[in-house]
Design goal:
301 residues; Receptor-associated Protein; flat
């Protein structure tokens, strides 16, 4: 068992050293650097040192434990919804998951060896640590997806109001998207980033319909999907975009009001569990405590 723990610890340290070496020794892409220097807006994905290090360390790990094409596509879509559009994001996520599956059981078994625990504790903690290392990255990813969808949903209402003003002021759809993206840069950065990507795709030659459909694929928000379908239909049949966006904005406000009413109706039901667990026992203790003390005094005599 000690040899197994030593091997696992050595493997984790070796992977960490290798990732640092690849980060420092391997140069980045010259094409990406030249594009970013020519036009900073073309830097769609921020190449931070942490993401570069993770991607480079993930390459040998994914060669050892490959992932199926179906699972890789599903994971890439989830990471895209979470705000990680890099092609290496799935590989980096898989590497982090495998490292946690190995590292957490190693640490737990090392602690068991230090405190001289029995063999069954080694096995139980090893299985528990592997399960934690497998499920924690997925839970974190799911939480990031939900929070990002919520932020985009909140930003869509403001974006629609600004788009109505911009279109009715005489701007075209492309100019209105650019203007709305600039106005939302500070308040709703996620929505600003998505609209900027739409404008960049249109600039590099893609059709407006394709760029809007890519917006739907990147966000995964139902309101965005409905909004994109509305814009494509209005653009295809030549109807007034301003009137269509105004009607959709009104329906979106109604839907948000209904969601708020639904959430407030659920709040009373959700409060039953904490009230039952924490408040009712205290009330019962305060009511019955004097009687219980009097009974104890009576029977003690």
């Amino acid at each position: 068992m000690l040899i197994f723990i030593v091997i696992l610890t050595f493997g984790c340290i070796a992977l960490a050293v290798m990732s640092i070496y690849l980060l420092l020794a391997r140069p980045g892409s010259l094409v990406t650097a030249r594009l970013e220097s020519a036009d900073p807006s073309l830097a769609l994905v921020e190449n931070s040192p942490l993401s570069v290090m993770t991607a480079r360390a993930a390459e040998p790990i994914n060669r050892i434990v490959p992932i199926s094409a179906v699972e890789a596509a599903k994971l890439q879509k989830q990471l895209l919804h979470a705000g990680y559009p890099s092609p290496d994001a799935a590989m980096a996520f898989r590497a982090i998951q495998l490292l946690l599956i190995v590292a957490i059981p190693s640490l737990l078994m090392t602690a068991c060896f230090i405190y001289d625990r029995p063999l069954n504790s080694f096995l139980l903690l090893g299985v528990f640590g592997a399960a934690v290392g497998f499920y924690v990255p997925r839970l974190v990813l799911r939480s990031k997806i939900n929070h990002r969808k919520q932020r985009i949903t909140w930003g869509l209402a403001d974006a629609l109001d600004l788009m109505v003003i911009a279109v009715e002021a005489g701007l075209g759809l492309n100019a209105a998207l650019i203007r709305v993206g600039e106005e939302l840069k500070t308040v709703h950065p996620d929505m600003h980033h998505e609209l900027e990507l739409v404008n960049l795709e249109i600039r590099v030659g893609r059709s407006r319909e394709e760029a809007l459909r890519n917006l739907t694929e990147r966000t995964g928000v139902d309101d965005i999907r409905s909004f994109v379908a509305l814009l494509i239909q209005a653009d295809r049949y030549g109807s007034s975009i301003g009137k269509a966006v105004r009607v959709f904005a009104d329906s979106l406000r109604t839907k948000r009001r209904q969601r708020a009413e639904q959430a407030s109706a659920k709040a009373a039901l959700k409060l039953l569990i904490p009230l039952t667990i924490f408040l009712f026992p205290v009330i019962l203790a305060m009511i019955l405590a004097p009687s219980a003390l009097n009974l104890l005094d009576l029977f003690s005599r």
